[in-house]
Task: inverse folding
């Protein structure tokens, strides 16, 4: 049994991740902290460090967090770009950077990207660009991680549990069950793979 | 004959780009402005807009600019990440964003990424991550550009002209002639392709 911290645990993807981790001890965190064990803001390295210190020993970190702004490229503001980059990209990288000081030997990080970098859609240029950055980051940084620590990304399409919210803006996308995305997180945590982007699409 | 603005014209890749543009009118710009027609700072949208206004009519923009910091992931500082992201990623996106207000119908943008997102190497995680973001950005934003405007990225390996500077940190990489990278920029400018990453590797 591993101890796994799930950041963004109250979101749809976080809940999907937890579905794949039934045999482990899961510790939950989110930006609001509501219904979770801990509150954490991934745009703040001090907040991330405080979470890790509070948990103590852990074997895996799953990030299902990262705020994205949606707008056409021509009207997306500097603030919208920065909010997306500092959360979904820099925030998730900091989850890893700070986590390296705390995670057990042989531990793993699993970050979240999203299928829009592979299947582009209107309004989603910031999501797509940062997803592409996260996929690349994971594939390249894996070679640098010490102590047998692994890193992967899960890159899912929209899940059935979120279809009501996103379906209208995603014509022609086939949602998948959250449980299938949970399998991807489980494989990242419990397999030996590293530097991989695990696509979950229909 | 097209009028083409080359940003980063005094760098090795900028010079390589110009080699492919012999039949066009080339206007040069760089951060220092030394030996170029104009000075421009791509991290400053006001500076980019001033360049475009000064040039007036133009058909293509080539960005061979973007500062990257090099360090191991574990020791790369927040400032190093931000310097790289705000220049190579956000700076180049702003070259496009601001450029859309000025470029001729049917014009083109060509951005620069770099092979380290495909062939990772020590110290280069920030370069690789932002290169992956640029490649993704180009592939996705192409569908949004108005007035027949195209966008591509050139993703080169190290060029022979830069081998003396980078060769020692790149064992096992085969440099290519700058003229071959110039061909890639020429194809982006003079063909009909859009949303493409043009890899130049040996």
Result:
């Amino acid at each position: 049994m591993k101890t796994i911290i799930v950041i963004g645990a109250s979101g749809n993807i976080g809940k999907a991740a937890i579905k794949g981790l039934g045999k482990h001890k899961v510790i939950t965190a989110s930006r609001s902290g509501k219904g979770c064990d801990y509150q954490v803001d991934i745009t703040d390295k001090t907040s991330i460090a405080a979470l890790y210190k509070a948990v103590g020993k852990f074997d895996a970190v799953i990030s299902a967090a990262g705020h994205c702004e949606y707008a056409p490229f021509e009207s997306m503001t500097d603030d919208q770009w920065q909010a997306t980059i500092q959360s979904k990209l820099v925030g998730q990288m900091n989850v890893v950077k700070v986590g390296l000081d705390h995670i057990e030997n042989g531990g793993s990080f699993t970050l979240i990207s999203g299928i829009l970098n592979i299947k582009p859609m209107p309004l989603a240029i910031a999501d797509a660009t940062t997803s592409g950055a996260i996929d690349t980051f994971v594939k390249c940084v894996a070679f640098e991680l010490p102590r047998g620590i692994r890193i992967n990304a899960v890159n899912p399409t929209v899940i059935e549990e979120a279809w009501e919210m996103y379906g209208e803006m995603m014509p022609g996308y086939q949602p998948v069950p959250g449980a299938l995305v949970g399998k991807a997180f489980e494989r990242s945590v419990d397999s030996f793979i590293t530097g991989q982007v695990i696509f979950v699409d229909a």
User: Anything to note?
Assistant: Chain A has one domain: 3-200. Chain A touches chain B at residues 45, 72-74, 78, 81-82, 85, 89-90, 93, 97, 100, 116-117, 120, 122, 124-125, 128-133, 135-137, 139-141, 143-146 (CB under 8 Å). The beta strands of chain A are 3-7, 25-30, 38-39, 60-63, 108-112, 150-156, 196-200.
